[in-house]
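2024-03-11 09:14:02 DEBUG pipeline.ingest accepted 1 chain
2024-03-11 09:14:02 DEBUG pipeline.ingest length=300
2024-03-11 09:14:03 DEBUG pipeline.predict start
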Amino acid sequence: MKGTRLLSLGVFVAGCVGEESESQRIDVSEANALGVTTLAIDRVADNDNSVFTLRALAGNDREVGSVELTLGSIADMTKLLPAMDDDVGSQLVITVGDATFRSVSREMHRFVVRGADDPAIHQLLELAAVANTLEREASIIIPTRAKTTEIGYAWAWGCDPSQVLVTPVAKQCCYQADWNPSTGSTVFIRATDGLVVYREYNAVYGTGCKAADGYSACSNPNDGTSCYFGPNGYGRPSVVNGGSNVAIQLLVIASGPEGAETYDGYCMAASGTPSFSDVTGTLPAQSCPGGNSNSGYWSY
């Protein structure tokens, strides 16, 4: 894999001083159904927001998909995550053809993509060049999903009340355990508005107020918001609009050679019949030590 990089500085015409932009191109050698041959990376930063964009290009630089991560002011943040009254956070938008996925969170440093289950989008994200580039260049993590030739990776089951907050009710709540690497996550429909909520869990150590590796101290002991995992062992929630008919379902994929299959189970938000029950949680909203109350960062 090889690439080229170009850095330029400029000023917005509208008067936003200090815009910085950076571009990079990476060749893609692996065969793929989308015909992607090149990845084009662009970064634009100004005084308010920073935007990272990966564009997947086929022949003649025809764009077939894109991943865009915006950090800073998100217009509908307080509507989607209303526990705090500021609009600072992140927005992830993935587009392939007519399929679009959008996720909003207050996470600003490490972004695990959950819920991007459209088949076309999955084709883009399963490309090793795409997944590796997103993680290396923007800390966007694409969880592994087993293919038919691979060993088992995950299983999913209904949430326990100890895994979700007292309010709101976590409708159709599903917990997913991944073993390669070992991670955990919950997904449910928020009772107040029908949006889908995802959270990462510190599955290896189970402890709260820790860095992303699950055991190191938060990066700033005087600022609880510097933690990746919050006080109950869960990261900042991300919110996705799954549509009016969304249901949380168990997706089962058979893996391994014929006659010796293993089965992987995944939590999936899609139209159809629910696989899981509603859960009223027992976890109180809490803060990590350091600074003022920060419970709103972990609430949904």
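2024-03-11 09:14:41 DEBUG pipeline.report Residues 5-17 have pLDDT under 50 and may be disordered.
2024-03-11 09:14:41 DEBUG pipeline.predict end
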